[in-house]
Design brief:
alpha+beta; Aminopeptidase; eight-stranded mixed sheet; 7 helices; globular; Acyl_CoA_acyltransferase; N-acetyltransferase domain-containing protein; BcerS-like
């Protein structure tokens, strides 16, 4: 690309994050501290209909609020939010969905994970038919799952960022990951210079294993 006159515009990195045997001690301390200090509550659901009714809209509105300042993010429209609430919440494993609310039950943070579908997509050869759907459903719902999970969404309300809320999210999720037999997680693409996001992996064993780049070329 450089030989063609293109230069780097932005890089995104991804991390393989190994699931620890126990919640990092500092995470546990921070979780307990900020939960008391800000009167925060961890909320879990067992019904997709109930979580959609109570917080479906708020989850994706929070995503817009948290991600809008980031380079390359396009806020979801109301129509997209409605569609995602209808399409995605029914298929996620609600054990791996953690909501954090304030004293008024307003959503201030969310963490959503799911089993990686990479292996299933490879087996399906990228096709849903005739039997590709089976591999995807097996990865999502059957007992034998992939050893890797995807951190689909981690979002924290801007005024609560850098206060340890991420530690509260993962203090809830780590025991669930362990119980379900996951070995490591894969982060979403993170802007190379987004230190706030990368700081949350400080207390985990990680491997930066992927890099994506957007190129730009000046046109005179």
């Amino acid at each position: 690309m450089e030989r063609l006159g293109f230069g780097k515009d932005a890089d995104w990195v991804e991390f393989k994050i190994y699931i620890p045997d126990a919640i990092p001690e500092k995470h546990q301390r921070i979780s307990e501290l900020i939960q008391r200090k800000y009167n925060l509550k961890v909320k879990k659901y067992t019904s997709a209909k109930k979580i959609a009714r109570d917080y479906g809209q708020a989850i994706f509105e929070l995503m817009n609020e948290a991600y809008s300042p980031l380079y390359g993010y396009s806020p979801l429209s109301q129509g997209q939010i409605d569609q995602y609430v209808k399409m995605y919440l029914p298929i996620v494993d609600l054990r791996m969905v953690t909501l954090i609310t304030d004293a008024d039950d307003k959503l201030i943070a969310v963490g959503i994970s799911m089993p990686s579908l990479s292996e299933a997509l490879q087996k399906a050869k990228g096709r849903m038919l005739p039997f590709g759907w089976y591999y995807l459903l097996k990865a999502l719902f059957m007992k034998r799952r992939a050893k890797m999970l995807d951190l689909l969404l981690v979002a924290v309300k801007p005024e609560y960022q850098n206060k340890g809320v991420n530690a509260l999210l993962f203090s809830d999720l780590i025991p669930i990951y362990q119980k379900l037999g996951f070995i490591f997680a894969e982060s979403n693409p993170e802007l190379e210079m987004n230190g706030k996001v990368q700081a949350q992996w400080e207390y985990f064993k990680t491997e930066q294993h992927k890099r994506r780049r957007a190129f730009v070329k000046k046109i005179d």
